[in-house]
Specification:
alpha+beta; elongated; disordered N terminus
């Protein structure tokens, strides 16, 4: 029988077949499309691109089974939904290579109706759909590949983690592309070893994943080898993004350190209060006996001036001790009207004699008509103390520290401004300055 006649009868046989069949060239041009692939009255699709005829697209479909067969040389099976009579119906799409002398010269696409094979096939399709939904809904990345590195499964979480789409992963990249350096080789070495869960298993292994843009991030990987008749055929891995967990661990460690520091400062405050009380007693004696010297002994003018200097300095020490006691006093929240100007002046009085402030110029611009503000004085003192100390640290002991108070908001608010001539807060740190326990100071 002539070859043309054989081809004619073959097409006639495909046309009599109750399933859709299309033959496509390697250039994605339709070579044959007997009924029922082409609805009655529709134009002949032969010679036109398959994606344009059947899907109305100018470019090949992202999940094109024909391109996959041309790339791999192996048949593939897809599960597709096709609209018929205003309803969607599931089909098995078998995509098969047609070879001539070992070379693929065409690809056959055959859509089979699951109902044709009875209820058992429906169960298989349903199980497949359930499994696919389960994989896609996983919060962890799930990636499976064959032993050559070709990716077989790539769920939505894996796409979010790596930046690759599922189509890119299954068609264009290799499993080695998602690990930096020799990461994939290291994972396989551990999988084949006995030290991370047994041969063929890998449990909670920490490594890094490489994104599409080249950046890397830490992950925790649990993986296993898939065996068929004792032969390695694939690997599957569950990828857990560790970035959020590690960030929380760092913040917890910082919080614990700050809590320890706060406890130490609390202990130091209690100790300071005790020392201050012990210092106050001899200071009282010094002031008392100095007054006795002035009143009961006929001292000359120069000696009297020296004794008065003793009295003044001792009284200044008493004032400093009293301020320290007020700062160290531990009490419940005590909200009452407070003089903000006095609280700021008190802070400066305590600090201006410290070495860090000796070369600082302190400017105080206080509004004398400032109203009283309901607040806890002890907490105000802590806030002002920290602001002033941070400003002095930023200037490294040299510069100008300016303290201003004013009334704002049509008399509704009291505004306090602490300014320094330091370098300012780096932009990268600004979003975190109000985070609890955040500090840029080194330990100690």
């Amino acid at each position: 029988m002539p070859q043309e006649t054989q081809a004619f009868h073959l097409l006639q046989a495909l046309g009599a077949f109750s399933h859709r069949t299309v033959v496509v060239s390697p250039e994605l041009m339709v070579l044959a499309a007997p009924a029922p692939a082409v609805p009655e009255g529709a134009p002949d699709p032969v010679g036109k691109s398959c994606h344009q005829v059947f899907f109305g697209r100018e470019a090949p479909c992202e999940d094109c089974g024909v391109l996959e067969v041309l790339r791999t040389g192996r048949p593939t099976l897809r599960h597709v939904l096709i609209r018929e009579n205003d309803q969607q119906k599931a089909y098995h799409r078998h995509v098969l290579p047609i070879r001539e002398q070992g070379r693929i010269t065409a690809v056959a696409v055959l859509d089979l109706d699951p109902d044709y094979f009875g209820g058992l096939d429906k169960d298989v399709v349903g199980a497949h759909g359930f499994l696919k939904n389960l994989i896609q809904s996983s919060v962890d990345g799930i990636i499976a590949s064959d032993m050559k590195g070709r990716i077989l499964i790539f769920n939505e979480a894996a796409s979010r983690m790596t930046g690759y789409t599922e189509d890119e992963a299954t068609a264009r990249i290799d499993i080695r592309d998602i690990y930096p350096g020799d990461g994939a080789r290291e994972v396989m070495r551990h999988l084949r070893g006995e030290h991370h869960g047994g041969k063929g298993k890998l449990k909670s292994f920490r490594t890094e994943l490489q994104r599409k843009n080249g950046t890397t991030f830490p992950i925790e990987l649990s993986a296993s080898v898939v065996y068929e008749c004792g032969v390695e055929t694939a690997t599957v891995g569950f990828f857990y993004d560790l970035r959020e967990k590690l960030r929380m661990e760092r913040e917890l460690a910082e919080a614990q350190l700050q809590l320890l520091q706060a406890e130490k400062m609390s202990s130091l405050g209690r100790l300071s209060a005790g020392v201050a009380h012990q210092i106050n007693n001899p200071l009282g004696s010094i002031v008392l006996y100095a007054h006795i010297l002035l009143e009961e002994y006929g001292l000359g003018p120069e000696a009297q001036a020296d004794v008065r200097r003793i009295v003044d300095d001792a009284q200044r020490c008493q004032t400093i001790v009293q301020e320290l006691l007020d700062f160290a006093r531990q009490s419940r929240l005590d909200i009452r009207p407070q003089d903000i100007n006095r609280a700021l002046a008190r802070t400066i009085f305590l600090l201006e004699g410290q070495p860090l402030f000796r070369d600082l110029r302190i400017v105080q611009e206080f509004d004398p008509d400032l109203p009283l503000v309901p607040a806890d004085l002890q907490q105000l003192n802590h806030v002002f103390l920290n602001l002033v100390l941070n400003a002095a640290d930023a200037m490294e002991g040299r510069g100008t520290l300016t303290l201003k108070t004013r009334v704002s908001g049509n008399g509704r608010y009291v505004q306090v401004e602490v300014a320094d001539t330091g370098p300012g807060i780096p932009g990268a740190i600004l979003p975190r300055i109000f985070d609890p326990f955040f500090t840029t100071k080194e330990e100690g």
